[in-house]
Design a protein that fits this description.
- The chain folds into two domains: about 70 residues, VC0802-like (2-Layer Sandwich); about 60 residues, ACT domain (Alpha-Beta Plaits, 2-Layer Sandwich).
- Strands 1, 2, 3, 4, 5, 6 and 7 form a seven-stranded antiparallel β-sheet that branches.
- By secondary structure, it is an alpha+beta fold.
- It contains four helices and seven strands, in the order E-H-E-E-H-E-H-E-E-H-E.
- A hairpin with a 2-residue loop joins strand 2 and strand 3.
- Helix content is about 30%, strand content about 40%.
Length: about 140
């Protein structure tokens, strides 16, 4: 899918050391983590990662016993100013496009807003954003 970024979702037991196991596997392999988000869901958590080498990271983590899924997400540049998030979410809401989840990562002078929509809506979401002048990235 064009104009999307690959995200890893790793399912973790919610216990001491599990996050370090994942980051340790990636560090040992020299794989750079570009974005990270951990969401607690009771006894388990969902770790969302955007890394430099998605497929290699997936293979290494699976070999380490982790359950890993690769999903496309939308990454857009945002200014560090009031209203930047509202602009994006309002554009999509006006078109009836639901954002399932979102998070940010540092992108230098500009920030990067990562968002997940339904796979069917993703192409339309990219089109809506680009038509309004939002820079949609194909790499982070």
């Amino acid at each position: 899918m064009s104009k999307s970024v690959k995200q890893l979702s790793v399912f973790l037991e919610n216990k001491v050391g599990r996050l370090g196991e994942v980051t340790g596997i990636l560090a040992k392999a020299g794989i750079r983590i570009r974005s990270i988000e951990l969401v607690e869901a009771g006894d388990f958590g969902i770790l969302r990662l955007i890394v430099a080498e998605t497929e290699r990271a997936k293979e290494l983590l699976e070999a380490g016993g982790f359950s890993v899924k690769v999903s496309p997400v939308i990454a857009v540049e945002i200014a560090h100013e009031s209203g930047c998030f509202n602009r994006i979410v309002s554009l999509l809401a006006a078109e009836g496009i639901n954002i399932q989840y979102a998070y940010t990562c540092h992108g230098g002078p500009l920030g990067i807003f990562i968002l997940k929509t339904d796979r069917v809506e993703m192409l339309r979401a990219v089109e809506v954003l680009e038509n309004d002048g939002v820079k949609v990235l194909d790499a982070v």
